[in-house]
Amino acid sequence: MVNKINEVSYVSKIIILCEQQYVFSIKKSPLKPFKNNRLELFGGNVDPGETPFEGLIRELEEEEMSGVLAKKAKEFKLEPLKLFEVEGKTQCIYQMEITEREYLKLKAHPDESYGIRTLPQTIFEISENLDMDHFTPKTIKIFQNLGLI
Predict the structure, then answer these.
(1) Quick one: pLDDT at residue 5?
(2) Alpha carbon distances (Å) from 83 to 4, 57, 71, 139, 146
(3) What is the mean pLDDT of each run of 10 residues along the chain (149 residues)?
(4) Which residues span the domain enclosing 86?
(5) Which SS3 state, helix, strand or coil, does residue 79 take?
(6) pLDDT, position 101
(7) Which CATH number fits the domain that encloses residue 64?
């Protein structure tokens, strides 16, 4: 378990799978063209005084309005799948599967996202078909660190 540590900056992100599909947020960030309208994993920066898991839950509550993702993550008391550094921050990567019924209930927060999109898990198997312009730069770095690309 990762505890609260003030001198380390954390980012908590979650890989969500549904029926052999990755679930992404379509990032809404009009002032940052390199992120705007690109696919990103749910999650974000961990605030001071939060554990990475607490930060993940808060971010899920902010980004997904139905509460399905935050509720399920809390129920499973997820542990990080992997930790690594990207851009000077420790990335805590979690993973969770949801059902199609849960997926259909998801509702992106309009301040955070243009919507929710899925891509097949096989997207990484044929790397020449993978258009990196679909993803935020940080999401690409996370995939690289996970060995997916």
Answers:
(1) 46
(2) 15, 17, 23, 14, 10
(3) 61 96 96 94 96 97 97 93 92 97 97 95 74 89 90
(4) 10-145
(5) coil
(6) 97
(7) 3.90.79.10
Cα–Cα distance, 87 to 64 (Å, whole number): 25
Report the domain count for the chain.
1
pLDDT tens sequence across 125-147: 766 667 788 999 999 999 999 98
Instruction: Return the residue matching tokens 């930790």.
Output: 83
The answer as to whether 41 is a domain residue is yes
Sequence-separated (6 or more) residues with CB below 8 Å from residue 13: 41, 42, 43, 44, 56, 91, 92, 93, 94, 142
Say which residue the tokens 């921050």 belong to. 89
- Cα–Cα distance list, 98 to 33, 115, 116, 148 (Å): 30, 17, 14, 20
d(CA 104, CA 101): 5
Q: Directed axis angle between helix 52-63 and helix 68-76, to 10°?
A: 160
